[in-house]
Amino acid sequence: MILSIESSCDDSSIALSRIDEYKLIFHQKISQDLEHSKYGGVVPELASRLHAVSLPIMLENLKNRIGTFDNIKAIAVTNEPGLSVSLLEGVMMAKALSLTLKLPLLAINHLQGHIYSLFINKPHIFPLSVLLLSGGHSLILEAYNHKKIRIIARTLDDSFGEAFDKVAKMLNLSYPGGPVVESYALKAKRQNLNFPIPLRDSKNLAFSFSGLKNAVRLKILELTQNGTNTLDNELVAEICYAFEQSAITHVTSKVKRYLQNCDIEHFGIVGGASANLSLRSAIESLCKMYNKTMLLAPLEFCSDNAAMIGRCAIESYRINDFTPLEFLDISPSSSIFV
Ligand code: KG4
Ligand code: ZN
Is the Cβ–Cβ distance between 195 and 243 less than 8 Å? Predict the structure, then answer.
């Protein structure tokens, strides 16, 4: 079995996976949403301190559940990309476990981990096209095998999830913004507002969300007369709806452009924002149109978790892709994709 640790941002998580059957044996996650909510976003030092509290609690829970660590063959940990101070907490725990249990270390890329959220408890499928939408990234990827992953499109500025977080903050809604903006959008009775669709006429496969975010900011200023009035819930819902529509139309128009020239049969959506149901159904229609088989992760494995890190680590273990303890370091950016 592989013990895996995830602490790249604001979710602390530990999992245990069987190598031979890909089976998830144990998985626990402690979210820090409440603690960060009052700041409208993740405060790195706070996240790091909370990881230091949560990770040992979950390790103890695992120990109580399985009784012994004797059957563990390797320790896997997310070491990039992410917040440095958060990544460090997981990596320090992984190194301590590696030393005391005399087990090898597997350094796992968080984005690669998200791809494997599609394959928890089952074999993987490659080649695979992937739309990865999270708080830190907006990417179209092509994964040919465990090691060969190409970036097809990235964002020029903010990411999809981050735009939801910022819009929620502007509207005084809670953090993370994605689920709350989505639920307000569903309640919208009026749908009269329109925001621009980013990069509408550009033939490039690139995302951009900062212009849309600014358009929302200006609209809020206009509707509140420069912050002197507050918005009622109906208006908040209408803004959320219009913003979500523009963001999703932007993503789907780029995915459509990509699919027009894509000969890979399977198309997966991953990352925290892949939980968005309107996005899922828009991509599902596109996949039907272009004869692609759509893959989705169960909702519980869309946001950051150690189960996907453990599933990815099974493949690293199989090719002996271990990292010696003295070389295991963290990196805020991603180094493995080309
Ligand atoms: O993958 P994830 O848990 O963390 C990162 O690796 O960034 O993604 C978290 C991001 C947050 O920005 C959150 O607002 C967004 O995913 N998110 C959503 C939804 N649920 C989470 N965005 C849009 N709609 C949602 N339903
Ligand atoms: Zn993530």
Answer: yes
